[in-house]
Design brief:
The chain is of the alpha/beta class and 513 residues long. The chain contains 19 helices and twelve strands. It starts with 5 loop residues before the first strand and ends in an 11-residue tail after the last helix.
Length: 513
C-alpha cells in the first residue's frame, strides 16, 4: 500500500466533549474535523467503534459489525424530530473529565427508546424507507446481533453459555418463538444500528469534503461473549457447552513472567479456509464501508499465534501454531481488491511476520516512546524509520508523553529512566528536561521519513497521565479520558499546520506559498 506522506491525530469518539457524559457523533465531532482541516491533517484515527464490553473496552465488543449506540448524537436525533428540547435537557449533565460509562449508557438508552417510540408513532417518515433498506442490506449480521442483544437482556446480561440450552445452542424452533414474542425489541436494536450508521455516514462524508480520512482499528480476535461467536460457533474452538477449548494470548516475556491470557476463543482456520474465509470477508468489507484505512491489531497472529488451553489460568503453558498466512490475504484481496491495512507489529516480531508484511506491502508501526534506550540503531528512533511506516509518539496503550516523561513509576528501573531522558534531551535538543514539552517529540516525528505520523490528542495538549486511555493488564479505570471544550485552540492548529507544511505532510507541497 502506498501511503501518502501525511499526518493525523488519534482521538477516540468517546473522548470528544459533549453535554451528555460521553463523546458522540454530534457537533463536537464536526468541530474536531474542522480542526483537522485547519491544521491540514489528513487522518483521524479512532479506536474500534462497536459496543463496548468487559471493562468498557472497545476491544471486547459484543459485535464486530455493530456500532456503539452510546455514540449516537441526541442533538442530531432532535434535528430528525425524534427527540425534542425537553428530551435533550433531561439528558444534559455538567462537563466531566471522564466518561461514566454506566450512567452515559443508561441516559442514551432512555433517549433512544424515546426516539424509537416517536418513530413508531409516525415521526420522521422520510426515514422509513432508509431503515427498511438498511435492515435488508445488513441482514447478514444485523438479525443475529439484534437477537443476541435481546436474548442478553432477557437473561440479565449473562454470558450466552449460561442461557437456556435451546438458546445457547441456537435451536431454530426456540429462536423462532423468541423472535415472534419479542419483535418490537428486536426492531429497536436494529433501529439503533440504523441511527448509528446514518450519523456515522454523514460524519465520514463531512470528513471527505475536508480532505480528512478515517483511520479505523480492527482487533484480530473477537470476544467470546459476542454475537459473532454465538452465531458462528462452528468457526471457533468450542466444546459442546460453548466454552473455548483454546484461547488467545502471548507467551511470557520481559514484561510479564506469566505472559498474557486474553481469553478470546481462537479461530478454526481450517474451517474458515474451506468456506473461503467468508466470515472474514464480510467483516473486512463491513469495516471498509466505514473507514478508509485500518490498523489490524496483533498482526503477527496471521503468521503464527500463541494457543493457550482454555483451562489454563495464565499464558505460560501455550504453544505456537501456524496462522493462515499469505493464503488468507490473497483470498481476501481477490474478493475485496487492494487492502488499506496497517499491520500492528509491535513486540517481538519474527521473520515470517516481516515476510508477510513485505509480500502485501502493509506498513508497520513504530512508537517514539520506545526509542531512547541508548541504542542508536533502534528501529524506534526517527533517523532509522523506513518509509513504509506509521509513526506514533504513543498509542492508546502507552502513557501520554508528559506522563511518561515526568512520572516516576516504581515498575520502571530508575536508572534506565534517567538514561532515557538524558538521551532524549540530547537527541531532541531539549535544554530544560524539567520543563520539556511534547513539541520537540512531535517535530522529530514529523521530519522523519515515515510516510504517516499520528499524534494522540493528549500529547498535542501536553497532558499528563490523567489523560492516558488504557493501561494493559488493568481491568478498571481505562478508556475514560475526555477532552475539554475549547482545548484545541487556533494557536495549536497553526503550530501543527506549520510543522505539517514544513515537512511536506500537508496538502500544500510548498510550505512557503
Amino acid at each position: 500500500m502506498d501511503l501518502p506522506r501525511s499526518s493525523g491525530l488519534l482521538l477516540h469518539v468517546t473522548s470528544l466533549p459533549s453535554r451528555f457524559g460521553i463523546g458522540d457523533l454530534g457537533p463536537a465531532a464536526y468541530r474536531f474535523v474542522d480542526f483537522l482541516e485547519q491544521a491540514e491533517q489528513r487522518y483521524w484515527q479512532v479506536l474500534p467503534l462497536g459496543p463496548v464490553g468487559f471493562g468498557s473496552s472497545p476491544y471486547a465488543s459484543p459485535s464486530t459489525f455493530a456500532g456503539n449506540p452510546a455514540l449516537i448524537s441526541p442533538e442530531l436525533l432532535a434535528e430528525d424530530r425524534l427527540l425534542n428540547s425537553t428530551d435533550i435537557d433531561a439528558l444534559k449533565i455538567k462537563p466531566t473529565d471522564a466518561v461514566d460509562f454506566g450512567d452515559a449508557y443508561e441516559r442514551k438508552t432512555r433517549a433512544l427508546r424515546q426516539a424509537f417510540r416517536r418513530f413508531n408513532e409516525g415521526e420522521a417518515p422520510r426515514l422509513r424507507e432508509d431503515f427498511s433498506e438498511f435492515c435488508a442490506e445488513e441482514s447478514f449480521w444485523l438479525e443475529d446481533f439484534a437477537l443476541f442483544t435481546a436474548l442478553k437482556h432477557a437473561h440479565n446480561q449473562q454470558a450466552w453459555t449460561t442461557w437456556a440450552p435451546e438458546y445457547a445452542r441456537r435451536d431454530e424452533a426456540a429462536l423462532r418463538r423468541f423472535r415472534a414474542e419479542n419483535g418490537d425489541e428486536l426492531r429497536f436494536h436494529k433501529f439503533n444500528q440504523f441511527l448509528f450508521d446514518r450519523q456515522w455516514g454523514r460524519l465520514r462524508a463531512y470528513c471527505h469534503d475536508r480532505n480528512v480520512e478515517i483511520f479505523g482499528d480492527l482487533p484480530i480476535y473477537v470476544a467470546h461473549d459476542s454475537a459473532d461467536v454465538w452465531s458462528n460457533q462452528e468457526l471457533f474452538h468450542l466444546d459442546e457447552d460453548g466454552h473455548a477449548t483454546v484461547v488467545a494470548g502471548v507467551p511470557p516475556d520481559y514484561f510479564s513472567e506469566t505472559g498474557q491470557r486474553w481469553g478470546n476463543p481462537l479461530y478454526r482456520w481450517e474451517v474458515m479456509k474451506k468456506q473461503n474465509y467468508r466470515w472474514w470477508q464480510a467483516r473486512l468489507r463491513s469495516i471498509f464501508q466505514r473507514v478508509d484505512l485500518i490498523r489490524l491489531d496483533h498482526f503477527r497472529g496471521f503468521a503464527g499465534y500463541w494457543e493457550i488451553p482454555g483451562n489454563e489460568e495464565t499464558a505460560e503453558n501455550g504453544r505456537w501454531v501456524e496462522g493462515p498466512g499469505a493464503h488468507f490475504f490473497e483470498t481476501i484481496r481477490k474478493s475485496l481488491g487492494d487492502l488499506p491495512i496497517v499491520a500492528e507489529d509491535l513486540g517481538i516480531i519474527t521473520e515470517d511476520v516481516r515476510e508477510l508484511m513485505h509480500r502485501f506491502e502493509f506498513p508497520g508501526m513504530v512508537v517514539l516512546q520506545f526509542a531512547f534506550d541508548g541504542n542508536t540503531s533502534s528501529i524506534f528512533l526517527p533517523h532509522n524509520y523506513k518509509q513504509n511506516t506509521v509513526a506514533y509518539t504513543g498509542t492508546h496503550d502507552n502513557d501520554t508523553l508528559m506522563g511518561w516523561w515526568h512520572t516516576e513509576n516504581s515498575t520502571r528501573d530508575a536508572e534506565a529512566v534517567r538514561r532515557a531522558r538524558k538521551y532524549a534531551c540530547e537527541y531532541l535538543q531539549i535544554d530544560d528536561a524539567k520543563n520539556a514539552t511534547t513539541w520537540p517529540f512531535i517535530r522529530s516525528l514529523m521530519q522523519s521519513s515515515a510516510r504517516l505520523t499520528l499524534i494522540p490528542v493528549p500529547d498535542l495538549l501536553q497532558l499528563g497521565s490523567e489523560a492516558r486511555m488504557n493501561t494493559p493488564g488493568e481491568a478498571e479505570g481505562n478508556w475514560e479520558w475526555r477532552m475539554q471544550p475549547g482545548a484545541l485552540t487556533d494557536e495549536i492548529a497553526h503550530r501543527l499546520q506549520s510543522l505539517t507544511r514544513l515537512f511536506g505532510r500537508g496538502h500544500n507541497a510548498d510550505p512557503f506559498i
